[in-house]
Write a structure and sequence with these properties.
This protein is about 25% helix and about 15% strand. The chain contains three helices and five strands.
Length: about 90
């Protein structure tokens, strides 16, 4: 089942393409994915900061994300500008 969470970010995940390699669960800094039996499950899509690590490490192209937008971009800009807190539209209250 293809899931698009564009309301929150650009992350898209097609569980039918998942091979169960677990790479997304290993590389995601926000535990967006969790292994559920033989495949990964998208459990915290709103927590995705669009860093692109999951897509870069997915051997079956089950995951796509437009890295460089959203919170990941805000965090990089804040680091370059020396700000303590990044600002982005996806922070939770």
């Amino acid at each position: 089942m293809m899931r698009n969470v564009y309301d929150f970010n650009t992350l898209q995940y097609d569980s039918q393409l998942c091979s169960g390699c677990r790479m997304c669960t290993i590389v995601c800094p926000h535990q967006v994915f969790e292994q559920n039996g033989k495949i990964a499950e998208l459990i915290h899509p709103k927590d995705c900061m669009e860093c692109g690590a999951c897509q870069l490490n997915c051997p079956t192209d089950a995951i796509t994300v437009d890295s460089g937008v959203g919170c990941a971009k805000a965090m990089m800009i804040a680091a370059v500008k020396g700000k303590k807190e990044p600002t982005c539209g996806c922070a939770r209250p």
